[in-house]
Amino acid sequence: MKLIKEIADWAYSLAVALALAIVINAFVFQPTRVVGNSMEPNLHNNDYVFVSKWSHTFANVPEYGDIVIIDSRVFRERSVKDDLADPVSTYLSVAKLAEVDNHIWIKRVVGKPGDTIEIKDGKVYRNGTLLDETYLKETMRVAAPKKVIIPSNQVYVLGDNRNNSSDSRYIGPVPVSHVLGKVVMTL
């Protein structure tokens, strides 16, 4: 009987600790691993980053230049279920037991609600002003000109390696609800 009670106490303690870890990772702070090279030269494949989830939890619009993780599935609503499931898959990827879900991207914020983002001649303009993007890997290959007005509660994100990045040029502006957090530390 004593052994069964001790096992039950341990199981309860582990369940509480796991639930607390999931809540903290869903709403406060989360480690994750970079997959791909879309943020080179600043972040590389398999780099580890720590993400503050406060902006997502309180639905704050990130600042210009913030490196954020996003849910690229912009045409579907996110739910609390998504917020609770993402940390589990992230833990598995950090431990290299599984790959990061391919819908979670890491990008840099270049446009906020109400901004006009224009891409022409391989350069990015915000509200008519050329951005000074010293963090880029290389000059963006010239593509068809693009001009977008960012709707309310959305942001425009781009990778630092523009010639090898899927970002808002392809999926459009990202709802603030899909900005899952801000990178606050890299390893």
TrEMBL record:
Its main location: membrane. The active site is at S38, K107. Its EC number is 3.4.21.89. GO terms for biological process: signal peptide processing. Gene3D superfamilies: Umud Fragment, subunit A (2.10.109.10). CDD domains: S26_SPase_I. It is a single-pass type II membrane protein. It holds the Pfam family Peptidase_S26. Residues 8-186 form the Peptidase S26 domain. GO terms for molecular function: serine-type endopeptidase activity; signal peptidase activity. GO terms for cellular component: plasma membrane. Keywords: Hydrolase, Membrane, Protease, Transmembrane, Transmembrane helix. It is found in: Cell membrane; Membrane. It catalyses: Cleavage of hydrophobic, N-terminal signal or leader sequences from secreted and periplasmic proteins. The chain crosses the membrane at residues 7-29. InterPro entries: LexA/Signal_pep-like_sf, Pept_S26A_signal_pept_1, Pept_S26A_signal_pept_1_CS, Pept_S26A_signal_pept_1_Lys-AS, Peptidase_S26. PANTHER family: CHLOROPLAST PROCESSING PEPTIDASE, SIGNAL PEPTIDASE I. Belongs to the peptidase S26 family. This is Signal peptidase I. It comes from Sporomusa termitida. The lineage of its organism: Bacteria, Bacillati, Bacillota, Negativicutes, Selenomonadales.
